[in-house]
Design goal:
This protein is mainly α and 79 residues long. The protein contains 4 helices and no strands.
Amino acid sequence: AITMKTQELRENIKQSIDRLSPERLLVAADFLAYLTERESNEATIELLKIPGFREAFNKAQKDVAAGKVTSVEQLKRKY
């Protein structure tokens, strides 16, 4: 199963989900939510390991709040 393409895996999973009882569907939903949260947390941890990331992110949030942003249209014209 590891050598299956991602699309094939998704299709197989969707078919399996369609055959689950409501009780098992709840278990599957909880497990998928757990996996999604874990993946998100791992990505956040990786970002926080980048030197200066937290400071740059905080500055970017302040800039956005203050309206110091460049619109997509301005970027398109620039490049």
